[in-house]
Design goal:
Layout: E1 2-8, H1 21-31, E2 35-42, H2 46-59, E3 62-66, H3 77-84, E4 89-91, H4 93-105, E5 119-121, E6 125-127, E7 136-143, E8 146-153, H5 157-175, E9 180-189, H6 193-204, E10 211-217, E11 220-229, H7 232-250, E12 254-256, H8 262-272, E13 277-281, H9 287-293, E14 302-307, H10 311-318, H11 322-328, H12 333-347, E15 351-357, E16 375-381, E17 386-392, H13 397-416
Helix pairs in contact: 1-5, 2-3, 6-7, 8-13
């Protein structure tokens, strides 16, 4: 069965407010083996909302609407759903009395417009809202011979989440055939999306019952596999089969078979080998260290390091000889090598990474004056051997810095592997 989520509210069509409810509802539907096929955001406009509901009812089996259940004139969800279904609205006296008691308990008079929150759609079941004034409503009916399940839910997350979990989700579970969803996520760093698809499409296209999605961004490629079957064992067997076949094709390019981040994988590998790591960063300004320390318990293997941004700090914090900087420039193979070796000695770590580069947008001066923007050197040392990698990263300052950290972590992963 396919589901659609409609988020109602003009504020979510501005740059200042995001729809987060749909993420929670999607997770809940996936738990029931339901795939969300469509998500719609619609403003507080009667015609637009009726149109969105009409489309959703025709193309989805399950429709969840969030928001638009308040007392004001622009809260239109109840009215628009009733109009689209050609059903009447009537005042639910029990809900109305509950609203009045809610205001009395707060020593307040209930404004007349709050009464609309007690309006019930013909044939709907009231979903009590223990955390707010607007109850939800549930509809289970046949539309042109097809069963439709519709719920309207309040917009505030603190009301929507518990109401969905306690009232809506059990009704969905009872109405749906038993289904289970299995997922698998494969991640690869620094490889073009087109290359991944060219190599893997002939494989995953053979698995017609597995939904495959390729996502590119943040210097990595992700392959997501989803399968829904009557039993969890069947679903897991299918995603395991396709992911194993893809893993055989992509080999060492895959850094995670279960969705872990590159920094998680590197820290795990260091822990297994009982090795420690230190870093020295120039152009990335601590971004590499931040990625590593964002993982809980990273202190077991990550000792720290230095943000050696200025030429003077490279010498003071990582023992880079000043003549190297004067002769080769701060962005050079020699300085990258010296940074890594110096910070490893200073911290006593097993391994050390360094990054130095030109992130822009300003052009460098001095010895580095004729070097291009996006030039980055990354060094990795274990105390006996030091590898230095020269890369050229196109794009703006943030892209250069992000990709530099990704290159550094991937260089370390392949070394450990």
């Amino acid at each position: 069965m396919l589901a659609e989520i409609i988020a109602v509210g003009s504020e979510m069509l501005t740059p200042h407010r995001q729809d987060t409810n749909s993420l929670y509802l999607t997770a809940g539907l996936n738990d029931l083996g339901v795939i969300v096929a469509f998500k719609t955001i619609v403003g507080d406009n009667r015609d637009h909302l009726r149109s969105a509901i009409h489309i959703a009812i025709h193309r989805a089996d399950i429709v969840l609407l969030s928001g638009g259940l308040g007392p004001t004139e622009d809260d239109l969800t109840r009215e628009c759903l009733a109009e689209t279904l050609s059903r009447s609205l009537h005042r639910n006296e029990a809900v109305y009395e509950s609203l009045q008691k809610r205001f009395v308990a707060r020593n307040m008079d209930m404004p007349p417009n709050n009464a609309k929150q007690a309006d019930q759609i013909e044939g709907a079941e009231i979903l009590p809202n223990a955390n707010g004034s607007a109850p939800g409503q549930w509809l289970d009916f046949a539309h042109h011979g097809t069963r439709k399940l519709i719920a309207i839910l309040p917009g505030p997350p603190k009301e929507l989440k518990p109401l969905f979990d306690t009232e809506c989700k059990p009704r969905l579970a009872a109405a749906l055939p038993p289904n289970h969803m299995a997922r698998r996520q494969l991640r690869m760093a620094l490889i073009p999306e087109s290359q991944v698809d060219a190599r893997t499409a002939p494989i995953y296209q053979q698995f017609r019952d597995v939904e495959t999605t390729i996502l590119a961004g943040h210097a990595e490629i992700q392959l997501h596999f989803i399968c829904v079957k009557p039993t969890l064992a069947e679903a897991e067997a299918r995603v395991e089969a396709v992911s194993d076949a893809v893993a055989n094709e992509m080999g060492d390019d895959i850094f995670s078979l279960n969705g872990e981040s590159l920094e998680e994988v590197v820290l795990l590998m260091l822990g297994v080998r009982r090795q420690t790591l230190a870093v020295a960063e120039s152009c990335t300004g601590g971004w590499l260290g931040q990625r590593l320390t964002s993982i809980p318990n990273s202190s077991r293997v990550f000792l720290g390091g230095a943000i050696a941004y200025s030429d003077r700090s490279k010498t003071a914090l990582a023992d880079v000889p000043s003549y190297l900087i004067e002769e080769h420039g701060a962005v050079s193979e020699a300085v990258a090598r010296s940074l890594a070796e110096g910070v490893r000695r200073r911290t006593g770590s097993s391994l050390a990474l360094s990054i130095t580069g030109i992130a822009g947008p300003a052009t460098p001066r001095g010895t580095d004056a004729n070097k291009p923007l996006g030039l980055v050197y990354i060094a990795l040392t274990d105390g006996e051997d030091t590898q230095v990698k020269e890369i050229h990263i196109p794009g703006d300052r943030e892209r250069v810095r992000l990709w530099a950290t990704q290159h550094a972590l991937e260089m370390l992963r392949r070394h450990l592997q």
